């Protein structure tokens, strides 16, 4: 699609969604005069990385979620630890599982060469997540620009702000409500688990140590359980062992996640928790049967997520290197 057509489409989407929930300070086409190639450079570099390893798509989408839920979408997840500070990225919820940092670094290097000190790391990540969704077959959506980069990243803040895969429905709902998302939006966003992978340690309790009465989680579909136990043997010390999130189509952004959940083939307790209430279970069913309805809702929810707690105007900074504050 031509850039101009794309812009018109984005404006149309924005108008039809209502601009009321656009965070003050963010703008469509924020870089149109300061760095007109910004979004194009992000997309070309992301596409190149994904042609090489499509797994980075899942990594970048998850990275956007983890950035925005901890201190807002301010690129805090991208900062490296220093001798005096353990950063978000070194939390066990992110390390070693979060992937795609090198992709962001490469985009940033190109943008620094083209428009020095202009495009924030937080904006690059927001664009890259959108491009990853589009690359894998999801609907595109407009991403506003103008986020500034934060100067603080604290490991311990990941625990209180990011939901655990062992969460029940009320914990999930609360975790998203804390960030201004409805329970419906929480169900919609959980569909991101249609792509990617999980490390064995995130499911080992479901396989081997579920409860006092059941070693194996009875809400895990038996043939999937057998398969997962083979891929994740008990007491396996290989911390890098992973399983696909969605055996139907781990590389395609579609609503098959919800069919998995309905078939008790969701990987996490938090995935199956969506069936524990009639309202959320009904939403799961609707999403499973109507891919494009879910895609539309997912786009809106990502549009909202990408504006969470942003720093704009003269706050924060434009980092020159996404891993370190200026
Ligand atoms: C609802 C609460 C959520 C919980 C408890 C949760 C938990 C997890 C866990 C434990 C993993 C496995 C990471 C690993 O071991 O490699 C994972 C992966 C992933 N999550 Fe979530 N997540 C949630 C919501 C979300 C949301 C809202 C998004 C994005 C919009 C998202 C996107 C992803 C993606 C794409 C992956 C695959 C990552 C990869 O392949 O590298 N998740 N999630
Ligand atoms: C969810 O988990 C929390 C913490 O373990 C617990 O207090 C709460 O009762 C659980 N809620 C439901 C509905 O099971
Ligand atoms: C199994 O779960 C219990 C309770 O959560 C925990 O105390 C124990 O350490 C776990 N055992 C293993 C082998 O992980």
Automatic annotation (TrEMBL):
Disulfide bonds join 35-115, 68-73, 121-322, 200-232. Ca(2+) 2 binds at residues 194, 254. GO terms for biological process: hydrogen peroxide catabolic process; response to oxidative stress. Pfam families: peroxidase. Residues 1-24 form the signal peptide. Heme b binds at residue 193. Ca(2+) 1 binds at residues 67, 70, 72, 74, 76, 88. The record marks 62 as: Transition state stabilizer. Keywords: Calcium, Disulfide bond, Glycoprotein, Heme, Hydrogen peroxide, Iron, Metal-binding, Oxidoreductase, Peroxidase, Secreted, Signal. SUPFAM superfamilies: Heme-dependent peroxidases. GO terms for molecular function: heme binding; lactoperoxidase activity; metal ion binding. The active site is at 66 (proton acceptor). It is found in: Secreted. Residues 25-326 form the Plant heme peroxidase family profile domain. Its cofactor is heme b; Ca(2+). The keyword Zinc does not apply. PANTHER family: PEROXIDASE (PTHR31517:SF84), PTHR31517. This is Peroxidase.
